[in-house]
Design a protein that fits this description.
Elements lengths: L7 H9 L8 H21 L9 E5 L5 E3 H16 L3 E6 L6 E2 L11 E9 L10 E9 L10 H4 L8 E7 L3 E6 L4 E7 L4 E6 L10 E3 L10 H11 L8 E2 L5 H11 L2 E4 L12 H14 L3 E3 L19 E4 L1 H13 L1
Parallel strand pairs: 3-5, 11-12, 11-13
Antiparallel strand pairs: 1-2, 3-4, 5-6, 6-7, 7-8, 8-9, 9-10, 13-15, 14-15
Helix pairs in contact: 1-2, 2-3, 5-8
The structure holds 6-O-phosphono-alpha-D-fructofuranose.
6-O-phosphono-alpha-D-fructofuranose binds next to loops.
């Protein structure tokens, strides 16, 4: 069958045997995420038409105003994952604590946990700019059949068995890895099927796009300021182009296709940056590395950063390998 016309369902079945834990549960898990993605996509695409715009009148643990679509997306993903009885635990940006599933049923043999940012970039919803869902999947480390503990969620990113994102943009795509490369699937909304549109996605080794919120320039560490000036200097292959959508999934996706670097550094107003390690940086770092890119906190590989709390923030430099390495050079000098 022509690779391009392959559906996500066919792709999962074909590749199930190559996945080292191929008990079919991970396949069912990706299927569940696919279903939730379609439901959220339906809501996101009609956000302007029904009463899902605007804040839900509540704030999440981050102290950020919860947009109604945030709440809806969170509920849909949790409900879908819970109903399919595939996972034993879920953590979400929108939930203060992790959720233990069927914890009192010692026959519960589910061994995967999922961490999600159900709707990243949600501040863009009301202005019709693309947003995304990010997910990260691990095998539990505590005994099967017992309630999950925080230890299951605080594993280093290098332990991930799968990670991916859905981008609700000009088209809706699901991009994911199970540790054997990165593949992108585009939704045909007319029939509700994802088709393999971007097999074997590769991060270009270098690029000419840098993505950072330059409004924070004065608060950045000197190394970041110096790298930004390097990007802007008229010499060699520069100046680069500045592109910042304010939606991690969108900036990452564009940079993976065209080449580029995304940065959310620490600053004098955000000592660990803004992005969360467990359900934003680790999954995006896993995808980046699987596509030949790189991700660090400016010094340490993201996938080896020690997690100490569920909603921990970490500085984030991610994208084309040579660009991340150049940024790290400037960080090391200072
Ligand atoms: P700022 C969205 O809230 C998000 O987590 C990322 O998707 C995005 O890249 C970043 O924050 C934008 O943050 O501070 O530049 O508006």
């Amino acid at each position: 069958m022509d690779k391009k016309n392959k559906t996500l369902g066919e792709f999962i079945i074909e590749n199930q045997s190559s996945f080292q834990y191929s008990t079919g549960e991970l396949s069912k898990l990706i299927h569940a995420i696919r279903l939730a993605a379609k439901v959220v996509n339906h809501e996101v695409n009609k956000a302007g038409l029904i009463d899902v715009l605007g804040a839900a009148g509540d704030t999440n643990i981050q102290g950020e105003d919860q947009q109604k679509l945030d709440v809806l997306a969170n509920e849909k993903f949790i409900q879908t994952l819970r109903n399919r009885e595939i996972v034993c635990g879920i953590a979400s940006e929108e939930e203060d604590d992790f959720i233990s599933i069927n914890s009192n049923d010692n026959k519960q043999r589910n061994k995967y946990i999922v961490l999600i940012d159900p709707l990243d970039g949600s501040s863009n919803i009301d202005v019709n700019v693309s947003v995304g869902t990010i997910f990260s999947i691990y095998r539990r480390v505590t005994p099967v059949g017992t309630p999950v503990t925080l230890e299951d969620f605080l594993q280093p990113g290098k332990n991930q068995v799968a990670a991916g994102y859905i981008i609700y943009g000009t088209s809706t795509m699901l991009v994911y890895t199970t540790g054997d490369g990165v593949n992108g699937f585009t939704l045909n909304p007319a029939i509700g099927t994802f088709y393999l549109s971007h097999p074997g996605m590769i991060f270009p080794d270098s690029g000419k796009i840098y993505s950072v919120n330059e409004g924070n320039y004065s608060h950045f560490p000197q190394g970041v300021k110096d790298y930004i000036k390097y990007c802007q200097k008229e010499e060699e292959d520069r100046p680069y182009t500045s592109r910042y959508i304010g939606s991690l999934v969108s900036d990452f996706h564009r940079n993976m296709i065209k080449g580029g670097i995304y940065m959310y550094p620490k600053s004098s107003v955000a000592s660990n940056g803004k992005l969360r390690l467990l359900y934003e940086c680790n999954p995006m770092a896993f995808i980046a590395e699987q596509a030949g890119g790189k991700a660090s906190d400016g010094y340490t590989r993201i996938l080896e950063v020690e997690a100490t709390e569920l909603h921990q923030r970490v500085p984030f430099f991610c994208g084309s390998k040579k660009m991340v390495e150049k940024a790290e050079e400037f960080m090391a000098k200072n």
